[in-house]
Amino acid sequence: MSYDLLYGRAGFLWAALFLNRYLGQGTVPDHLLSPIVAAILAGGRVGAADHEACPLLYRFHGTRFWGAANGLAGILYVLLHFPLSEEDVKDVQGTLRYMMSNRFPNSRNYPCSEGNPRDKLVQWAHGATGMAITLAKASQVFPKERDFREAAIEAGEVVWKSGLVKKVGLADGVAGNAYAFLSLYRLTGDVVYEERAKAFASYLCRDAIELVNMTSQETEHDYSLFRGLAGPVCLWFDLVSPVDSKFPGYEI
């Protein structure tokens, strides 16, 4: 079994967090979840055994992905919701700082995977968007560690400069990128992020149908949550009350 958010152990933990949030704490009891948290941390340490600089690494189909969907950003985001030992905190923080120190030097975007030189994707699944949201969560969990807050804000700047892409969905499109701004708005209270989210949402109001028609080769995804028009609809609803917004299927 993998460790990632979409298909693995982190996804199971996320589902448990969701149930506990909306059906009551303890719906999925801690004694069932703690061993899975421990297994994810242990698996990450084994995966990083040949890598001195990064405490936790995971493979998905043989590749050490960094993104939120199948990689480090998503796994770390979920782990940040659970009680962690001193050693666990050190490894989670160390992994985040390793990623921060290995951003692309010019764009400040994040690689899709370990050692990948391709600097093209700015989306939730890969790149700065997922990292902005994960780092915002890290800043909330570790408020004294100012570098996480600063890195989250910097990732948001990458999204603002390069995130108006030609897809609409949450996973790889403009809707998902707009949620990075909403996460930063809740973190900082700075209205500039609310305005940026509204700007991306306005673009979708005007061009979403055209973008779907231009880019979709699989019509069954046209109205889906992560790749289709359901993502922009969630964004538009969340902009009614940005302080209460949550990235669907990611933020708790």
TrEMBL record:
Domain of life assignment: Eukaryota
Name listed for the protein in its UniProt record: GCL1
Alphabetical GO biological process terms: carbohydrate metabolic process; peptide modification
Phylogenetic placement of the source organism: Eukaryota, Viridiplantae, Streptophyta, Embryophyta, Tracheophyta
Similarity comment text for this entry: Belongs to the LanC-like protein family.
